[in-house]
Amino acid sequence: MRFGARGALAAALVGMIAVGGIAAALRTPGPARAEGMMTDEANRAIVAHGFNTASSSKSVPDGMPDFTEADLDAEHADMGTDFVRFLISWRKVEPEPGVYDEQYLDDVAERVEWYDERGYRVMLDMHQDLWGSGITPGGMDGNGAPVWATYLDGFPVADHDQWELYYLEPGVIRAFDNFWNTTGEHPELMDHYAGAWRAVAERFADVDAVVAYDLMNEPYGGTLQGPAFEAGPLTELYQRSVNAIREVDQDSWACLEPQALGFNWGLPSGLGFVDDPREGDARIAFCPHLYPLPMDLGEGFSGTSRDLVEGTVAAWRSNTLRTAEALGDVPVILGEFGLDTTLPGALDYVDLVYTTTDASGIGVTYWSRDPGSWGPYEDDGTPGTRRNLVDELDRPYPRAVAGELHGWDSEPTRLVIEFVPDSAATAPTEVYLPADGFPDGAVVEGGEVADWDPEARILSIETAPADGGGAVQLVISPE
After folding, report:
1. N or C terminus: which one in the chain shows less Cβ crowding within 10 Å?
2. What's this model's pTM, rounded to 2 decimal places?
3. Which H or E run contains 474?
4. Looking at the domain that runs over 5-394, which CATH code has it been given?
5. Which residues contact 428 (CB under 8 A, 6 or more apart)?
6. Beta bridge partners of residue 460, listed in sequence order
7. Is 455 exposed, middle or buried, given 0-12, 13-18 or 19+ CB atoms closer than 10 A?
């Protein structure tokens, strides 16, 4: 949720709250790192390094992003990505009550196959902003929910140039209140939503590339906000959705987002515990977003803004890890962060976020793969030479680690990984190494090179358990 300059008054009020929340978080730091990690079929910890794909799918009739296989090949070659948060929508999954669009799911499956063929992992994100297209007659202001599930009850929705201001409109608030059944008039809507997730999970349960479902993008509570919303109807929706998914899919991870309003700016979450009814260990993950308020207001990462943003990132990290611990030591993926990369200090901010998440055991999907000033490429598909985001994201990182991953430190010519080896892992550790920093491969301290693929830029490493069963450290340097 991103507020522009026209929302300055509302943002200033929230900012005062945010300052208090950040100060409180800094007085009580959270855990040092995420205790859990998503795992693959070889029982290795997997790290998300990729993009949201893409905003261009939100309102178009077919619900598909403006994105081709050639675009994916370019991204893979330029930045070594291995993960995608792929946007889907309720309006397309369930265009009529109880009717699921198999052609749409087939179209999604076709794109998923592109990623699968290239060794990517996919998180399907049920995306919404401003509830849905039914909030205004033109149908272009909101996205996500189907028109049939949109109940404004006669409340107005005025036009705005700045899209985020629609969240303050009585009709939009009423649509959310009806969904969460705050009004007591539409208890069926959350069940429909969970049913839509069941249909998605049934379609992709046997697709190995699909490892996770992001249950709702940036939830908004309408008239119900804060812990009352998160611990109440939001947690209830997540529980219903997980239960529905587990009827058809026992293996994929269910990703929970907190309320966007506040948490994106560094405030704590009141999200409740969600039980996973699958056999074996729970597969629940926490997938918050990060959009520091000064940058949402259009400022760069410089001067006073830089100090405030650094404080927000520190608070966000503490509150993220604290929430993940409360949810059951679950894995964490930063589902969205991004900015206009033409702003002063933009790449320094990108580096700060990745440095913070690396040290905390948190994977990242950047917003977004769309062209323009927020993305890595220009409209014509060439890298953004004014911004060099491609170079910033083409960084060494662990793709899959044969053990309990504690964190990693990525530099242009050095990658350090700390983890506890696990004998249950049936494949070696894999890391991605950019050509600029590692032109001829790498040498490894703490492990043995098992294989080097110079085309994919993937190094495979075998590691013996440490004496006493503790953590080992891999230090990877250029050959």
Report:
1. C
2. 0.95
3. strand 472-478
4. 3.20.20.80
5. 402, 450, 451, 460, 461, 462, 463
6. 430, 451
7. exposed
Specify whether the backbone of 469 is left (phi greater than 0), alpha (psi in -120 to 50) or beta: left
Q: Where are the domains of the chain?
A: 5-394, 398-479
Distance CA 91, CA 14 (A): 31
- Asked whether this chain's domains 5-394 and 398-479 adopt the same fold, the reply is no
In angstroms, rounded to a whole number, what is the distance separating the alpha carbons of residues 93 and 102? 8
> Dihedral angle at the C-alpha atoms of 182, 336, 167, 317, nearest 10 degrees?
70
pLDDT tens figures, 423-455: 999 999 999 999 999 999 999 999 999 999 999
d(CA 436, CA 359) in angstroms, rounded, equals 23
Residue 411: which H helix or E strand, with range? Answer: strand 403-411
**Residue 7 confidence (pLDDT):** 42
100: left (phi over 0), alpha (psi -120 to 50) or beta: beta
Nearest Cα residue to 130 out of 184, 59, 190: 59
What is the full DSSP assignment across 15-67?
A: HHHHHHHHHHHHHS---SS-S---B-TTS-EE--EEEEE-GGGSSSTT---S-
According to the CATH classification, is domain 398-479 in 2.60.40.1180? yes
pLDDT digits (tens, 9 = 90+) for 252-301: 999 999 999 999 999 999 999 999 999 999 999 999 999 999 988 889 99
Torsion of CA 54, 58, 61, 67, to 10 degrees: -10
